[in-house]
Structures are given as structure tokens and as C-alpha cells.
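Worked example 2:
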Amino acid sequence: MTRKIILSVLGIALIVGAYFFAKYLIENKNKPKPVVPKVVKTVLVDTVENSTVPIVISANGNLTAKQRVELYSEVQGVFKTGNKLFKAGQKFNQGETLIRLDASEYYASVQSAKSNLYNSIAAIMPDLRLDFTDVYPKWQAYLNGFDLNKSTPQLPEISGEKENYFITGRGIVSAYYNVKNLEQRLAKYRISAPFTGILTEALVTEGTLVRSGQKLGEFINPSVYEMQVAVSKSYADVLKEGEAVTLSNLEKTKTYQGTVSRVNGSIDATTQTITAFVEVKHDDLKEGMYLEANLNAEKVNDAIEIDRNLLLDSQEIYVVKDSLLDVIPVKPAHFSDATVVLKEVPNGTIILRKPVPGAYAGMQVKAATTDSAE
């Protein structure tokens, strides 16, 4: 009897416990979920105002001196010491001697030929006095002005046929041109500076035996440089001489002003580019310096320029309408490394100034025009 009572109590307790547990589960199931606040991104925007956008072509290259001379020897001789050392970095004024070779032996042969010419003319003077009295004075004056230590003067002008036969028959003319030829070669033992500049390369030193055809060094004018750039053939008709060009170094810390000095008349068949030469002057510039040039190619009317990252692969850009993102089609006119020029964007359209991660059409945003508002 007692056992039945205990089992009955336990059964009733189990039923009551199950009832309250079920009620607890039902109450928790119907409890409303917490509301997560919706985050609205703040985006930087701009209002479109179409205008004329200049297209700037970026190109780069190395500077080379506009005036440069590679020095070669046309004669053979020992390099003699001069007033200035023949070393890289040495400056020379126009007309100064860059290199002087020992020409003592050759100089003696030139003097011998000049002496023979003088003697040949002197030998015909008695005949000229007797047979050509009218031309005798000019030949006598020529002899009087003949100086072996100076360049051979030009022969007197031959005025008549008889005089011509007489002078030519005595070998005077051929002897004169032989002397002038030797004098021209003697001048090649001295190389003078064609302009004021600096020696950038020296391949020989004083006392060296220089051979004919040997390269001696390089000489440049450090005041004017040129940079060769290659641009697309599509700009061949707008790239003109005299156009202003802004150049900068790789660190973007210095800028220089140059002009387009020459434009190649042919297009490279391999790369389909046209070569232009930019002239620039500045004391800080050195040959071989690497610069970047910005050339003004043309102007696009009724266009805007934006960050290239804002243009979608579908040739569309994001706009803001009623606090929602939307996309509109655009027409790219020119691409550069960082920007793109667009046409067919209506005035007054509100567009993004900076890309928005995870952006999509219909996304709710808050427009701002300055970074502080973000």
C-alpha cells in the first residue's frame, strides 16, 4: 500500500515538472529577437560639372646632351701634356685645346714642302719679269708676304691663259695644293673644343701613343639636354614642336620646364609609336638622368576626370540617388595610370569621389563632400 502511494506521488510530480518545463520552452520560443541597428555608410561625393579636360600623356626616358661629340684621332702620335688634364669632369671653353699630339716629325715635312713651294716660285720670277711684266708685281708681293711659320697664303689669281700655262707648267699649283693638304693634316694633331662644355669620358692619358681611328673620349655641352619619348601614333597630329612639357624626377620632388624640340616624321612599325624629343635646361640636370614628362596632347570638351578605380568593368560608374547607390553608363575618352576622362555624364549628377568597398546598386549611403563629414 505504501509503495503505491509513493509511485503515485512521483508520477504526479513528474507530470507537473513536465508541464512547467514545456511552458518555459514555449515562452522562450516566442520571445522577440533583438533588433540589430542598420549601418549606413558615409561616402564622399562630387557633383558633376562638365568642362574641357586637357589630356596629358605621361612618358619617361633618360636625358642626353643636345650637343655631344665623340672624340676620335685621325692621325697617330704621342699624347702631349696640355694646360688642363684630359680627365672626365674637366671643363673646356670653346676653342681650347682638348688633345695635342706630338707632330714634330710631321711638322718638319710640312715645312720642307712649304720651302719647296717658295723656291719654285722664286725660280720663275726672272722669267715673269721678262715675259709677264704685267703680272710680275703680284707674284713678287706674294713672295714678300710668304712666311714659313704661318699658314700658306692663297696663290695670286691667274688672270690669263698664257700665265696659267706658265704657272701650271712649272708645277706651282700642284705644289701649292700639296702644301695645303699637309697643313690640313697637321691641324689634326690638335683637337680643340667645338663649344664650351665638359669631358664626360677620357680613354687616353698623357704620354699614350694614340693610333689613327682610336676613340679618345666624349665631350658634351652640359647646359642643354634632350629626352627622347615615345607616344601613341594617335597623337601624331596633335603633338607639335614648341609645346610646353613639364618634367619631374622619380621622387616627384623637383619639376622642370621643357619644350618639344623635334617630332619624328615616321612611326615605328613595330611599336606603332611616334618619337618626340623634349628639350630642357637646368643647372641641376645631368646626362643619363631619368625623368618623367607630361605632354599636353589634346583637349576633350564636355568631359570630367575621375579616379580610374571608380570605373567599373561594365563601363559604368556609381551615382547617388535619394541616398541609394545606382549605376549609369559612361563613355571613357582617355585612360592614364591613375585617372580616366569620361564623357556623357550629365551635369549635376552626384558621383562617388572615392571607391566604396562592397558597393552595390541599391545600397543605402550617406553622402558627404569632405573627409571630416565621414
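The first strand starts at residue 41 and ends at 47. The helical segments are 2-29, 104-131, 136-144, 161-169, 172-187.
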